[in-house]
Amino acid sequence: MRSPRPGLPVLLGIALLVAMALGQSGEIRQRGSAGLGEGMPPREAALARGFVLGEDEGIDEKTEEGFRRAGLSHLLAVSGQNVTLLALLAMPLLGALGIPLRERLVWVLALIAVYVPVAGAGPSIQRAGVMGALGLLATLSGRRTSRLYALALAALVTLAIDPAIAGEVGWQLSFAAVLGILLLASPLRERLLAALGRGRWRRALAEGVAMTVAATLATAPLIAFHFETVSTTTLVANVLALPAVAPAMWLGMCSAALAQLPGVPLAPLNGLEALLLAYVAQVADWCAAPEWAELEVHLSGAGLVVAYLGLGVAALACWRWPRAAAALAAVGLACWLPLPWPGGAVAEPPLRGLQVEVLDVGQGDAILFQPAGAPAVLVDGGPPGDGLARKLSEVGVDRLGAAIVTHDQSDHVGGIEDLLGSFPVDRLLFARLRRGLLARAAAVGAGPQRIAAGSELRVGGLRLQVLWPPPELLGAPMPGADPNQLALVIEARWRDFSMLLTADAEAEAVLLEPGPVDVLKVAHHGSDDVGLGSLLERVRPRLAVISVGRDNPYGHPTPGTLAALRSHGVPTLRTDELGDIRIEVGPHSMRLDR
């Protein structure tokens, strides 16, 4: 007997609740984040927030590195797995309340609509939300639907919402993983069941392992192409972590949901989840420990095509001849081990990790970071009227995830002021900014946000951490104070690459202890700085760059600054001599692109 269709009052009530929840998605996320930390050790609390909400800011670098090397980084970002587990958790709970099937499906659809923005609305969760909604709508209409059709429709819908999302690595990996599961998981599961025998627990094991192997093989070529690195232990790590992942997700979702109710004790629930998360972290440690756990790979566009052709042939063989599934692992390994693919391992392959450009904007600063698969970030914009929008377009940037103003002087903020209203800027970050510019940024939707020492911005794998000035110095300026010494000093990190951006804050007045860095942006266009020698001894840069205008009237860079750099053996590049300076960064490598 078919379940009755939900009545109009029920639908209207659900729609009203969803609208109210969407209006408070930020508050829901904040309460859920706080609830996930109650009664947990710090590491497990940070992992819980990453698993359930995609908040990885609190995860320490060692843990994050271990997950990456073990091929478990996908667990730290919300994805289609979260939506699936949400539906699997909600359906029986709603059924226990006596809610009919069709009404349950509507409630799950509403939960997905709320969960996607609460979880950050990233590319993978958008795709998963659209696919889940399509599947539920097909079920509600009483029609069977093709999963491949739903995947294609999800692609069209997400592209219609934001065409630029196709360039996001997360979006590409998400679709590759789902496509791999749809094409490869079924024959792999049948082969495993033939070996394991039938039975409920055997079927569950075979299903989980097959989906894990299929998704891993389908995404490996893309990972090699974009990040030039692959984890050799990812299959083992994902299979070992498999029994704990779903329970940890379910417990975290329950905890985040109960956190919306005041006074509910969450420590018992979180304590159990912490044990599961500690196990997953231990698996990551085990599988990340060998030196060979991560290999560097150079895969070109032609190599990527060949890799997926190989996987396609293997998938066809598995569907047509199930016994051929056992050979799939060998084909998959060949797709991502460092073999000489056609057009792949060639001299000077593109690194495709992080691109840093010190733009030639004359007597001013403008440094552009382009992390693979994430929006670009601009630190300062040089003086006004220098055609910054054109420069950004020339290097392939049509949107800024963030623009950072180190201090409110025209040779740093002028170009960014020109951009506002004519070029997409998601966020404007600053320490101090005049009210008129602040109001203008808010008016054009640039999301102004004040930052100081201790603040951190994450965009993809790029981290920008503010080292100076401390918040207490950013109040009312002291009479006669040098505004340059209140400029934001930022350390940029991508994997094991680091760059120190000193803006106009000379080392003689600003004490910094960031440790060794790869690149130093010399302060204040190379002006005299009696503290530079001491700074060079502390940070030991492999390269220094000076952003300075040709034939400027200030005599920058000064002979004393150049002499200090030479005496410490630091190679130095200058925009007045070379124009734009481009640095390409890959896993464990850095090179100049002339």
User: What structural category characterises the helix and strand content?
Assistant: alpha/beta
Report the count of strand segments. 17
Question: How many angstroms separate the termini?
Answer: 71 Å
What is the beta-strand fraction? 5-15%
Number of discrete helical segments: 20
Could you give a short account of the major beta sheet? 8 strands, mixed
Radius of gyration equals 26 Å
* Low-confidence spans: 323-351
**Averaging pLDDT over every residue, what do you get?**
78
User: Can you give the helix content as a percent range?
Assistant: 40-55%
Categorize the overall geometry.
globular
Concise description?
The chain has 594 residues and is α/β, with parallel strands linked by helices. The chain has helices at 8-23, 25-36, 42-53, 61-69, 80-96, 101-118, 123-141, 147-161, 169-196, 200-227, 234-258, 267-288, 301-320, 328-336, 388-394, 410-419, 435-443, 532-539, 559-567, 575-578; strands spanning 229-231, 294-296, 354-358, 367-371, 376-379, 400-405, 428-430, 448-450, 456-459, 462-468, 489-494, 497-501, 519-521, 543-546, 572-574, 581-586, 589-592.
Overview of the molecule:
The structure is a single chain. The chain contains 20 helices and 17 strands. With 594 residues, the chain is α/β, with parallel strands linked by helices. The strands form three sheets. An eight-stranded mixed β-sheet has the order 8-7-6-5-4-3-16-17. Strand 7, helix 17 and strand 8 (448-450) form a beta-alpha-beta unit. It starts with 7 loop residues before the first helix and ends with a strand.
